[in-house]
């Protein structure tokens, strides 16, 4: 049994008929389509969206770490230009991944 809540007033609708009206605020709901309901699925989806946001932020941070490492690498590297180029390249790739991650944050799948 899925726990269901009214999307309007958060009234607990579990145990009630699948399609009907909220006894608390009178707004109609449909347990089959999820209309007018806050159910477990929605909560999971919100959790997934949050995870995707964290992934995006982590990738951005990772890109800056890569840049920082390249910057530090120039201290010991003989070919500093190549080191910076490599660092910039890695950062751009990670930032592109972060951007892609950001674009797919709202994706349902
Ligand atoms: Zn309600």
Could you walk me through the main structural features you see in this protein, from its secondary elements to its overall organization?
This protein is mainly alpha-helical. The protein folds into 2 domains: 4-35, no CATH class; 47-103. 56% of the residues lie in helices and 11% in strands. It is built from 2 helices and 4 strands. The protein has a two-stranded antiparallel ribbon. The protein has a two-stranded antiparallel ribbon with strand order 2-3. α1 (40-76) packs antiparallel against α2 (80-103). The longest helix is centred in the middle third of the chain and has 37 residues, at 40-76. The protein is rod-shaped and about 75 Å long. Zinc ion binds at residues 6, 8-9, 11, 22, 24-25, 27.
Question: Summarize this, please?
Answer:
Helix content is 56%, strand content 11%. By secondary structure, the chain is mainly α.
Distance between the termini: 23 Å
| Count, helices | 2
Helical amount:
55-70%
Bound molecules: zinc ion
Low-confidence stretches: none
Question: How are the strands of the largest sheet arranged?
Answer: 1-4
Number of domain units: 2
Number of strands: 4
Task: Please describe the structure with a list of short key phrases separated by commas or semicolons.
109 residues, 56% helix, mainly alpha, binds zinc ion, 2 domains, 11% strand, two-stranded antiparallel sheet
Element layout with pairings:
Layout: E1 4-6, E2 19-21, E3 28-30, E4 37-39, H1 40-76, H2 80-103
Helix pairs in contact: 1-2
This protein binds zinc ion.
Residues 6, 8-9, 11, 22, 24-25, 27 line the site of zinc ion (ZN).
